[in-house]
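Quarterly update, task 2.4: zinc ion-bound model.
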Amino acid sequence: MPELPEVETTRRGLAPHLVGQRIETAVVRNAALRVPVPSGLAKKLAGSTIRNVGRKGKYLLIDCGNGTLIVHLGMSGRLWLVDAGAAIDKHDHFDLVLSNRRIVRLRDPRRFGLVVWQASTAPEHPLLASIGPEPLSPDFTGGWLYDITRNRSAAIKLVIMDSHVVAGVGNIYASEALFRAGINPKLPARRIGRERYALLADKIRETLEAAIRAGGSTLRDFVGGDGRAGYFQNEHLVYGRGGEPCVNCATPIREIRQGARSTFYCPVCQRR
Ligand SMILES: [Zn+2]
């Protein structure tokens, strides 16, 4: 599943090829994504020029001047650039056709992704309005985490995966950041103090930035290629390493279930 680092790498990979390009049309082959692709999208997009490719959490925001095309990659989506005439796969649901004969293509086999339109005059789209601070921005601090968790008795791992608390920290990076901060993933959020939250905010940022750096080498995959999902195969410290020795203390990494997802942690390094 694409997490924030993959989405940010997609943004960085596509932006230089998109900004300044005029949109010729949009092709919707299958509108039945997580949210239906709005009808009449081609008409809204035709003739506009892409001004910027931004991101909020895991949403890509393509600024077209008269509005913003909002794209989410869901569980299995990939957005990349192909030349006009490239073969069309049955999972290629959406194309943004540029006037330079290139196409921004969305392939999404599981169709949990989405493509929606927000007119520039409209209030912020409900999908984006309730998202918490961006973890790589200065708005995201230990103080914010501390303040928002004073009444929350849910486990800290589940709380940092809540997009109202912080945007786009998924299952993998939640486990990784908690390990780096030495915090037990089962600890009730309200029992964590200011100092440890400051450390956790730093470690969330550090973990995501490291993954984005590692993804830099795959940037070329966002242009051309066959559209196979190029999600990162990172070396994780705890995620996916159940039963293997901890990199710090050699204790076997423990795997538990939290909120129907796997959590990995070291019972010694993350004792409390
Ligand atoms: Zn350990």
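Highlight for this quarter: The pocket of zinc ion is lined by residues 246, 248-249, 251, 266, 268-269 (CB under 6 Å).
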